[in-house]
């Protein structure tokens, strides 16, 4: 009886193999080609930026890590597989047609080289691809130093945890995976080639298979022992569920830590038991060792700590955890820059009675009360300063400070007038126009934040709009720069808005006549040619073909607008440019423009972070920085976990030529020091920050929001009180009716509470509530002044002082306020919007709440519904002040004279220019634009009944009384007049 031969594997014909090879090459080119193009383009871009060393260092590190990991894992797997094959049995009995392995054995023998080298190669490549993503961890290990601070448990310098331990854990993981895969490969190879045979419930293991498999299991046991040893150090940065602090607690130190040491010893004993099978030829010892390790990990590693936690710690948790809470408090303050070197605590009553003269004497505060809300007034900027349909202002504007005409510090709402590709229409979207004509924005617009143009107190006035100071290219081609600082080059080629389009590039450079749209005169359009140093040359055919492939655009090859002098500007988003040249930084979500040394630059804050600082609280950047503005404007940070953060770098990006400059802000940061060794020469020393730049550096919002969330807990010194959470604080919710999250911190210019004097100081501030209460607990201010930068002052407030929510409720429900706004918004003629509720220290112990009120025509949210300031509302110690100006509102609370030093509206109550062209605002007359009525009167020009006419006269008389009361500043009279007007309007509507 003949035995049926195993079926042969199907084979391809010669032609089929050729076609398959061609197809494989094409697929490979489609996969690798774009990556090669992107790599070469990046090489050109980094070279143009002056940061090619960053590109080569990152690329070289990735390649080295890839090769090292691929070789490590691939060779270990290959060794396990090759040893099994080389020691296979010479004769393998065939099981006949029923042998399930014969078919696979034949397939392997047919393609022996492919299996022998292909499987380890594929596994090695996959391991290399994963490992190269950890290039930063490798570089920090190679260049990290010491912190000069040791952990409280093992006495190791914190540099071990920041730089060494993560690398050791990474290396151990890859070696463990490689050995495990080698075990699998060895096992499968022995099985396929007969070293392991299973038949009828019995098995046979060759001597070679036993030695190799046992050896690999023993190595895994040794690696597990090393893992247990490293686990001890990682206890210091983990959080046990239910604990109010981070780091090893009583259970971890007294149960888990000994358990890890015992398990490491057991793993070594088990490894010895496994290796004993090499000599005793008895597999029961390895089996016993593996089972022993598993049981030990359950009993000693999990059971014992659980018993200690439940029966020893929980009944006396506050006392048991006291020492470890103290460790966490100290470490968290160190890791987040909240030590006594940075934070100063002061007692503050929050409700001390203040007189009119004291308020007036607080000139630094009262003269700088901000009435412009940068989250609301962007439509007004667009309406009056847009100029052309393709220019645009972001929905949220920025706050910065400059010197006012009187030489005193003032805060301004600032914005760059960028080109928005999404607003190009019709033939403006043509490739030539989109990328060679409409290439840049034009202008830096600033509005004093403490004033508006005139008073919006009746329909006959044009007040309530921002006062604009526009630095632009004027009608004769020269730069008109009326303030707040001189600007030589207002053209904007780099910015977050201009880079928002799907194809972010512009082709510039001299190639015949000027092509780029610049400005208009009364008779013609003037063009311009970029003269900056930025941009990658694209004039030769190689570059044209390269960028045609990168952007999938054939016009690079066929358009005659590209000449030998042409350059391409791309990657124009300032934050992304900083991330590219400093990939080790986490950037702040806010980018803001400033005039520095007569140049417009974008300023970006960069952070160095760690996620394993011993005993420091682990924080989610996304959760810690979320507030109502972040949600409204979709600026949420990624969900990155950190336990250490420093604002170590200040970055600037030139708005004209894209030059990126990095400056060391915190030169004591060990993480920054490590990265400066990795990329030498890329970060300039702090001494190179010019005076002009230092005057525009702000304390970063995201860092401040992280710190205020942590200060809510870690201001507590006593560990027992900390454990009880009784003295914790809360970040208040934004009281604005349209908000849905935490109240944002606010930049203000006010008296310097850090120094305790009345000099103006640019600060980032926030109120803090009592834990789960709406009463104030603290007021936090971070100084941005160059001589006091980064100092945090915390005013701790006892008693029951109203928090933001209670203050806003008191203001918005006040009879006079609600009646007045009811009249203004009657029949949806105006949309009422409350601005940001500021909290300002006044006098020697008081806190003043200030909220601007805006009105827009109709109820639309469209940009055409541009808002104007109509009222200013305040509250101090349960008393509400309300009026058309800051001065009148202050007088209403504190009495006549309190608002004497407040900044009034601009003397010219005329309205700003509506949609000016690119000429200077000062050069063109301001045309009249229809103003949304504040209090709409009944329509005239129709026949009225006698009752209706009498009611109309009463309405007009009541409206006159309201105006008189406004001018007099008498708050009681004003409230009575509003009541009279409301009753008159009701009678008019009811008359027939």
Explained architecture:
A hairpin with a 5-residue loop joins β22 (644-654) and β23 (660-664). Among the domains are: 578-796, no CATH class; 937-992. It is built from 29 helices and 33 strands. Strands 3, 24, 25, 26, 27 and 28 form a six-stranded mixed β-sheet that branches. 42% of the residues lie in helices and 18% in strands. With 992 residues, it is α+β, with helices and mostly antiparallel strands. Residues 909-944 have low confidence and may be disordered.
Keywords:
single chain, about 1000 residues, six-stranded mixed beta sheet, five-stranded antiparallel beta sheet, about 20% strand, globular
Gist of the model:
This protein has 29 helices and 33 strands. A hairpin with a 2-residue loop joins strand 32 (868-876) and strand 33. The protein is globular and about 120 Å long.
Give the rounded overall mean pLDDT. 87
* Sequence stretches where pLDDT stays below 50 over 5 or more residues: 909-944
Distance between the termini: 117 Å
Q: State the total count of DSSP E strands.
A: 33
Strand content: 15-25%
Number of helices: 29
How is the biggest beta sheet arranged?
A: 6 strands, mixed
- Global shape: globular
Protein structure class:
alpha+beta
What is the share of helical residues?
40-55%
What Rg is obtained from the alpha carbons, in whole angstroms? 36 Å
């Amino acid at each position: 009886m003949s035995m049926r031969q195993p079926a042969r594997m199907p084979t391809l014909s010669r032609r089929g193999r050729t076609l398959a090879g061609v197809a494989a090459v094409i697929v490979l080119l489609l996969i690798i080609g774009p990556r090669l193009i992107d790599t070469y383009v990046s090489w050109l871009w980094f070279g143009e930026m002056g940061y090619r060393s960053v590109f080569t260092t990152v690329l070289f590190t990735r390649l080295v890590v890839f090769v090292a990991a691929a070789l490590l894992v691939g060779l270990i797997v290959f060794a396990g597989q090759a040893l099994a094959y080389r020691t296979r049995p010479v004769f393998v009995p065939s099981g006949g047609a029923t042998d399930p392995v014969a078919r696979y054995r034949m397939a392997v023998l047919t393609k022996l080289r492919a299996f022998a080298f292909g499987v380890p190669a594929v596994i090695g490549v996959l391991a290399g691809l994963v490992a190269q993503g950890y290039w930063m961890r490798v570089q920090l290990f190679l260049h990290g130093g010491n912190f000069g601070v040791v952990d409280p448990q093992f006495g190791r310098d914190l540099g071990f945890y920041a730089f060494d331990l993560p690398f050791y854990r990474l290396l151990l993981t890859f070696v463990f995976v490689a050995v495990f895969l080698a075990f699998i490969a060895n096992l499968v190879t022995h099985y396929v080639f007969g070293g392991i045979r299973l038949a009828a419930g019995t098995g046979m293991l060759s001597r070679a298979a036993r030695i190799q498999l046992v050896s690999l299991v023993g190595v895994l046991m040794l690696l597990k022992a090393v893992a247990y040893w490293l686990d001890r150090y990682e206890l210091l940065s983990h959080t046990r569920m239910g604990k109010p602090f981070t780091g090893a607690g009583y259970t971890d130190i007294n149960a888990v830590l000994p358990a890890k040491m015992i398990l490491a010893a057991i793993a070594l004993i088990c490894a010895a038991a496994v290796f004993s099978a090499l000599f005793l030829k008895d597999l029961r010892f390895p089996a016993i060792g593996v089972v022993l390790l598993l049981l030990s990990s359950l009993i000693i590693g999990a059971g014992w700590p659980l018993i200690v936690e439940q029966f020893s710690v929980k009944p006396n948790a506050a006392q048991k955890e006291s020492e470890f809470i103290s460790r966490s408090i100290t470490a968290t303050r160190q890791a987040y820059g909240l030590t006594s070197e940075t934070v100063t605590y002061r007692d503050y009553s929050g409700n001390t009675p203040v007189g009119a003269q004291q308020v007036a004497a607080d000139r630094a505060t009262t003269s700088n009360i901000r009435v412009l809300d940068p989250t609301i007034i962007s439509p007004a900027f667009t309406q009056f300063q847009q100029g052309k349909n393709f220019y645009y202002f972001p929905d949220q504007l920025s706050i910065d400070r400059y010197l006012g005409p009187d030489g005193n510090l003032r805060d301004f709402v600032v914005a760059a007038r960028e080109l928005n590709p999404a607003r190009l229409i019709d033939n403006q979207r043509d490739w030539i126009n989109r990328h060679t004509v409409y290439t840049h924005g034009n202008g830096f617009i600033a509005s004093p934040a403490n004033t508006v143009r005139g008073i919006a107190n009746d329909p006959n006035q044009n007040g309530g709009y921002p006062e604009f100071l526009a630095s632009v290219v004027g009608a004769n081609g020269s730069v008109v720069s009326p303030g707040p600082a001189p600007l030589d080059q207002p053209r904007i080629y780099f910015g977050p808005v201009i880079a928002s389009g799907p194809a972010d590039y512009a082709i510039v450079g001299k190639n015949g006549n000027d092509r780029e749209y610049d400005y208009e005169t009364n008779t013609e359009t003037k063009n311009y040619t970029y003269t900056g140093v930025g941009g990658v040359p694209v004039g030769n055919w190689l570059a044209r073909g390269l960028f045609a492939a990168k952007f999938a655009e054939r016009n690079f090859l066929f358009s005659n607008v590209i000449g030998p002098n042409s350059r391409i500007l791309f990657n124009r988003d300032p934050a992304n440019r900083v991330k590219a040249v400093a990939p080790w930084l986490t950037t702040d979500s806010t980018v803001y423009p400033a005039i520095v040394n007569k140049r417009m630059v974008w300023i970006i804050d960069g952070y160095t972070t760690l996620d394993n600082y011993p005993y420091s609280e682990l924080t989610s950047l996304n959760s810690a920085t979320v507030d109502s503005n972040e949600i409204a404007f979709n600026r949420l940070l990624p969900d990155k976990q950190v336990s250490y953060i420093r604002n170590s770098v200040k970055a600037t990006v030139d708005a004209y030529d894209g030059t990126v400059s990095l400056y060391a802000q915190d030169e004591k940061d060990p993480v920054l020091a490590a990265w400066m060794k990795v990329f030498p020469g890329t970060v300039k020393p702090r001494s190179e920050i010019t005076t002009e730049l230092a005057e525009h550096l702000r304390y970063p919002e995201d860092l401040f929001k992280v710190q205020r969330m942590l200060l809510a807990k870690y201001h507590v010194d006593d560990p027992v009180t900390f454990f009880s959470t009784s003295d914790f604080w809360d970040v208040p919710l934004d009281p604005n009716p349209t908000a849905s999250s935490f109240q944002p911190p606010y930049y203000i210019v006010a008296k310097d509470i850090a120094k305790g004097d009345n000099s103006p100081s640019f600060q980032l501030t926030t109120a803090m509530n009592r834990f789960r209460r709406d009463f104030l607990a603290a007021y936090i201010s971070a100084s941005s002044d160059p001589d006091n930068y980064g100092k945090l002052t915390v005013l701790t407030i006892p008693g029951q002082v109203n928090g933001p929510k209670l203050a806003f409720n008191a203001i918005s429900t006040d009879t006079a306020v609600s009646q007045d706004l009811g009249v203004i918004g009657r029949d949806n003629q105006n949309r009422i919007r409350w601005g940001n509720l500021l909290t300002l220290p006044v006098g020697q112990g008081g806190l003043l709440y200030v909220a601007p009120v805006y009105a827009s025509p109709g109820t639309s949210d469209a940009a055409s519904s541009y808002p104007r300031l109509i009222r200013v509302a305040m509250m101090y110690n349960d008393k509400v002040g309300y009026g058309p100006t800051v001065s009148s509102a202050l007088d209403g609370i504190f009495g006549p004279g309190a608002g004497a030093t407040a900044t009034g509206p601009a003397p010219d109550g005329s309205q700003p220019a509506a949609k000016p062209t690119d000429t200077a605002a000062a050069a063109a007359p301001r045309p009249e634009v229809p103003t949304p009525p504040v209090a709409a009167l009944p329509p005239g020009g129709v026949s009225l009944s006698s009752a209706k006419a009498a009611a109309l006269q009463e309405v007009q008389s009541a409206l006159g009384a309201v105006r008189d009361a406004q001018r007099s500043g008498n708050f009681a009279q004003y409230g009575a007049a509003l009541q009279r007007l409301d009753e008159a309007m009701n009678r008019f509507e009811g008359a027939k």
